[in-house]
Amino acid sequence: SQTIHQWPATLVQPVGSPLSLECTVEGTSNPNLYWYRQAAGRGLQLLFYSVGIGQISSEVPQNLSASRPQDRQFILSSKKLLLSDSGFYLCAWSRDLKNTEAFFGQGTRLTVV
Amino acid sequence: AQRVTQPEKLLSVFKGAPVELKCNYSYSGSPELFWYVQYSRQRLQLLLRHISRESIKGFTADLNKGETSFHLKKPFAQEEDSAMYYCALSGGNQGGKLIFGQGTELSVKP
After folding, report:
1. Shortest distance, CA A86 to any CA of chain B (angstroms)
2. What is the pLDDT of residues A74-97, one digit of tens each?
3. How far lies A98's CA from each of A102, B69, B91, B107, in Å?
4. Which candidate from B44, B46, B93 shows the least CB-CB separation from A98?
5. Distance CA B98, CA B90 (A)
6. Strand, coil or helix: what is B100?
7. pLDDT at B7
8. Within a 10 A sphere around the Cβ of B25, how many other Cβ atoms?
9. Cβ contact (<8 Å) for B95 and A44?
């Protein structure tokens, strides 16, 4: 069966520090991968998605970047965190663009102080 | 603009009462609509989608294109239904690229 792992679960980082959140999927190949963020009082917003290794699409302008160095690995990064980067980050995968069911990780609660 | 609106942040009902979680959307085209649910300390997961036309855990949702709504309903709420519910939409061939509403927290009291 397929599983998705996301870590860490919680993170407190100072303003200006770098960020790296990692997500891996097991049990499937060539998944579509996604990073979502939920800011306080708002719904989940799609940040990035990837349909293959090295292929990243950004949905909103922001201070973050994403990379997909391996087929089942998706990384969310920042060189210098801002206070506004605080939020709940969710990684997700789907089988392909035709299959619209998304499977989510446990999420990372990021607090920038 | 593409948007999903869930007007209620919190909905509180008593066990056995009917429940309706509202969802309205704005989308130019024919979207696919979903309800996702997150129970306490669990992952966000798919509850149901409009194309399946099925009842899951007693919940149903009908897509009303005229009113651009996709309300989630259950005739008799149970305490285990307490959770965070998100309405979401996806365009054709968009995979897991979902537009989510703000979410509604459902609290079912004994």
Report:
1. 17
2. 999 999 999 999 999 999 999 876
3. 11, 23, 10, 34
4. B93
5. 5
6. strand
7. 95
8. 21
9. no
